[in-house]
């Protein structure tokens, strides 16, 4: 047994100090980034991704987020034919999600060949990115599909970030336990404070010309700002994008949001929770939030404002101009009063 005594931080533990700025207006801030990945692929847009969760990673969300120049990871539960139709729309936003079973691979193979886009964006997504089976799957996948933009995770430590990048991943997904409907920390005691995970994994990835996604734990626009400020190239959102029209929510019914390994999701997609495992997600009631473009506008407004506070004319500069200051619990309670 070993204890890491260094302090590790979450988004709620810090604020960002303002810096002198020559920017006259928020409208001068450029939030779109041009990425060049290790695989040689490129992507241009606002680096925010809807999570591949029910009520978030839907086709309607994908189309709406394409118009906002962001991305959407589609859930794993769509049928081949539906996915082929969606990917044939050739949106800049669509991301194909899969797990690491043979069925997942066969389904992807079918969609890939019928869509005929060698540079399709793919997210290989497992709860625990530390297994040997996961790394071997990534290597096999990269050999078979050298042209795809490959995102994969989840991990929270620099060594595993490096291992995934060397195995062929373009963008490593970082986050174990911070999700709004995740109960992994409660059920297993496993996890890592998300701000520190992002700082440490971004540093490791950038050293190898790789990229990272900060996945989970953002509940207000300021958390997204902190994730980018900590070095994240992309931020993935579940709860903040739930409850919208495009995810199937409405003002006439109760709207639920649940983790993809909650009892609700297992009952719906897998015929119940297998008897050797426990649910690691929960189900919550959420208010109806209308169209997602309004929420995205709020988020982008927060990001632009933060960039002007620290004098960053581009999102890319934000982390270089960031000094975090640790804050007390009391200040956090004041902050949470503003949660949307
Ligand atoms: P949020 O933005 O809601 O805080 O976090 C979204 C992320 O939570 C997802 O992208 C995914 O990584 C994670 N997640 C989704 N469902 C579950 C679940 O049932 N259990 C766990 N442990 N994590 C989940």
Structure notes:
With 340 residues, the chain is α/β, with parallel strands linked by helices. Helix content is 34%, strand content 17%. It has helices spanning 59-67, 80-87, 102-115, 132-144, 158-166, 184-188, 194-207, 221-229, 263-270, 292-310, 329-336; strands spanning 14-16, 33-36, 42-45, 48-50, 71-73, 94-98, 121-125, 149-155, 171-174, 211-215, 234-237, 255-258, 283-286, 324-326. The strands form 4 sheets. It has an 8-stranded parallel barrel with strand order 4-5-6-7-8-9-10-11, surrounded by 6 helices. A two-stranded antiparallel ribbon has the order 1-14. The structure holds guanosine-5'-monophosphate.
Point out poorly predicted stretches. none
Structural class, by secondary structure, is: alpha/beta
- Associated small molecules: guanosine-5'-monophosphate
Estimate the global geometry from the Cα principal axes: globular
Number of helices: 11
Spatial order of the strands in the main sheet?
4-5-6-7-8-9-10-11
- Round the mean pLDDT to the nearest integer and report it: 95
Q: How many strands appear in the DSSP assignment?
A: 14
Distance between the termini: 41 Å
Query: What is the chain-wise order of helices and strands?
Result: EEEEHEHEHEHEHEHHEHEEHEHEH
Rg estimate, integer Å: 19 Å
Helix content: 25-40%
- How can the largest sheet be summarized? 8 strands, parallel, barrel
Strand content is 15-25%
